[in-house]
Amino acid sequence: MKQNQKLSTKQAVALRYSPEAGQLPTVVAKGKGKVAEQILQKAQEHRVPVQEDASLVEVLSKLDLDQEIPPELYQLVAEILSFIYRSDQRAENRGKA
Asked: What's an example Gene Ontology biological process for this entry (predicted)?
């Protein structure tokens, strides 16, 4: 595979997070190329927020499906989830105005 082809291969990892159930963020889907595109398409169809972070995807893609994220990723994933939560709240508040 050529260098530029390798760099352009899309990757995606999906996390599930249910704090009310006492669960940590867990890898529920991951893939490259067409599989990554399908993951992103499903997220869009279901209005699931998407965060682009190539470094984080690289690390998360090494985890197994149904594996909880490791402690060293808690802070980073928490920041992303917090950003998404705040964005959702702002959008919801705009919808009420």
From this structure: protein secretion
pTM, two decimal places:
0.80
Q: Report the alpha-carbon distance of residue 77 to residue 25 in Å, rounded.
A: 8
Tokens of 88: 């959702």
Q: How many CA atoms lie within 13 A of 71 on its CB side?
A: 0
Nearest residue to 33 (alpha-carbon basis) of 59, 1, 56: 1
Summarize the chain as % helix, strand, coil (round to 5): 55, 15, 30
12/28 Cα distance (integer angstroms)? 11
Other CB atoms within 10 A of residue 60 CB? 22
Residues with Cβ within 8 Å of 24's Cβ and at least 6 positions away in sequence, in order, are 17, 68, 69, 74
What's the CATH number for 3-96? 3.40.1690.10
